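Weekly structure sync, notes
Attendees: PL (lead), two postdocs, one rotation student
Agenda item 3: pending single-chain targets
PL asked that the sequence for the first pending target be pasted directly into the notes so everyone works from the same version. It is reproduced below exactly as submitted, 275 residues in total.
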Amino acid sequence: MLECVVNLSEGADRARLEALARLAGPALIDLHSDASHNRSVLTLAGPTVVAAARELAAAAVAALDIRQHVGVHPRLGVVDVVPFAPLGDDGLRPDGDLGEALAARDGFGRWAAQALGLPCFLYGPERTLPEIRRGAFDALRPDFGPDAPHPSAGACCVGARQALVAYNLFLADRNLALARQLAAQLRSPAVRSAGFAVQNGVQVSCNLVAPWSVGPADVYDQVAAATRVERAELVGLLPRRILEAIPARRWRSLDLGEASTIEARLAARGIAAPN
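Predicted structure, written out during the meeting:
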């Protein structure tokens, strides 16, 4: 079973987002939107995940225009990132089997290029998402699709990866230079981070790409040691095993909880998560 976390470059128009989200059907287990980033994260999982990702991508290309996008988050296109990840133990091991995720990634890239005319860059074992953002249409050519961006939809980064936790920390000190400094200090093979100015404050935005070794509590504590954290924000969902590695007494202050696990959302759909 796979998870697919579709990142769309739209985070302000709630009615449009809800209309797009409905197209994912029962595969949609979470929708998280942010107006400052002007970005939404739609978590899909279950047996219909590949079909749902395609339905959602086709509708987003028809409805959204990257030329009108304004937001603090970097992006290449309206369907900006489409990563596939294995659920269960394989998604929580650095050497976990990515075979099914790689097949879904390559199939999605071919389909999006042919059906939507969307240039697709692949990431995963071969290269990272940051490498694509730095080199797209310059040092790197699309793996599928045209060599130039789609006029209104831009390009798409399609990935196969292990479990990832997206996590934001809002600082009490509204100092963008400090947020960027702290983000730089957090960066490692397990953490990708950036400092952003957002509505009413600043944040350190993190992708925890190896959450089994560096989890939400670890980055929270490192930032809190340097400055007061006003609040934390989980973006999307996280695997239950990552949550259970953190003392339950800390969950609320870290913006975590059982209801925000992939397993709980699948159970609510009547789907048993793989072990």
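Discussion points:
- The beta strands are 2-8, 28-34, 39-45, 79-86, 120-123, 156-160, 165-171, 191-198, 201-208, 229-235.
- Residues 99-116 form the longest helix (18 residues).
Action: rotation student to compare against the earlier draft before next sync.
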